[in-house]
Amino acid sequence: MSDLFGGVVEALRQASVFATRRHELIAENVANAETPRFKARDLSFAHELDLAKLVQSAPDPKAPLGGSELDLRILNQPDGPAKLDGNDVDIDKQMVRVTQNALYHNVVVQLLKAQFDGLKSAINGR
Amino acid sequence: MPHEALNISASALSAQRTRLNVIAENLANANTTKTLQGGPYRRRVTQLESEAPAFASLLPDQTGLRGVKVTGVVQLPETRRAFMPGHPDADHDGYVEMPNINPVMEMADMMAATRAYEANVSAIQAMKSMAQKALELGR
Questions:
Q1: What gap in Å lies between CA B43 and CA B1, rounded to an integer?
Q2: Using CB atoms, which residue from B5, B50, B133 is nearest to A32?
Q3: Positive/negative CA dihedral, A106, A108, A111, A112
Q4: Ramachandran sector of residue B135 (left: φ over 0; alpha: ψ -120 to 50; beta: rest)
Q5: ipTM
Q6: Each residue of B27-59: b (16+ CB within 10 Å) or e?
Q7: What is the pLDDT, as a whole number, of residue A80?
């Protein structure tokens, strides 16, 4: 990993992969909102906590922020008690998550764009 | 990959559309007393099931995402007897075998299917905007 695209850019790349993967799982929940016995699932970013610790303890700017590998975990995330048909998806909560996740992704992409814009102006010298 | 999320939402759109078709059939035939199979029309119900993940998605690095599919349209056996002595299909006692369809229930089911359809359309739109935002990075 080169320094140019290590660090922040790498962490943001991982975050955008996370958002895309999470959207897939939420789309699955929405698609199966009325499927009997379906259990809602969500994606968790196991690195989130490690990342926060890393930033606090080691302010070394060269240390890669997100680590090398994405550690995404799928977990059962019931929206509440299961309905009579054994389905535990709450469509309203899922729609909120769709919006939240899309906004989160926008933020990440926006930050990436800022990083690249910075590089670009450094290259162009203006 | 974005197309995976789109496929999942698309499978739900198609399933909900089938459900709406079946509801429309029930409503249209709420008073049908004669069918090809004989007897009155019988209420139909759509069965939904999670799709088994495709082979590729069983690999460890994949998430095994499941769309939804219609496994069958089940015909319920119940009918309802209505007293209509003037009806051409009435029996000796003046009763007619009618479909056991409650239009109010069908309308409620139709609204549920419409909302589910809309929810999936929103999920597709969110995915689309995410992909478009990511594409803007190249500009």
A1: 40
A2: B50
A3: negative
A4: alpha
A5: 0.75
A6: eebeeebeeeeeebbbbbebebbbbeeeeeeee
A7: 87
The secondary element (H helix, E strand) that includes residue B28 is helix B2-28
At residue A76, φ and ψ (nearest 5 deg) are -70, 130
CA distance to A62, B14, B40, B65, B68, per residue, from B118 (Å):
46, 12, 34, 21, 15
For residue B118, what are its two tokens?
């809309």
pLDDT digits (tens, 9 = 90+) for A58-74: 555 555 555 556 777 78
Residue A27, token pair as written in the block: 């789309």
- Min Cα distance A9 → chain B (Å) is 12
Q: Is A106 on the interface with B (CB under 8 A)?
A: yes
* Identity at A74, one-letter amino acid code: I
Average pLDDT for A15-42: 91
State the angle between helix axes of B103-135 and B2-28 in degrees (0 to 180), rounded to the nearest 10: 160
Smallest Cα–Cα separation from A95: which of B69, B66, B115, B70?
B115
Strands B68-75 and B79-83: unpaired
| Residue A79 · residue A40 · CB < 8 Å | yes
Give per-residue burial for A72-105: e unless 16+ CB within 10 Å, then b: beeeebebeeeeeeebbbbbeebbebbeebbebb
Å from B39 to nearest chain A CA? 31
CA distance B73 to B77: 13
Tell me how far apart the alpha carbons of residues A47 and B102 are, in angstroms, rounded to a whole number: 53
Give the amino acid at B129: S
Give the global pTM: 0.78
B51 touches chain A (CB under 8 A): no
Residue B24's alpha-carbon distances to A116, B90, B111, B116, in angstroms, are 53, 26, 12, 16
Report residue A75 as tokens.
Answer: 């977990």
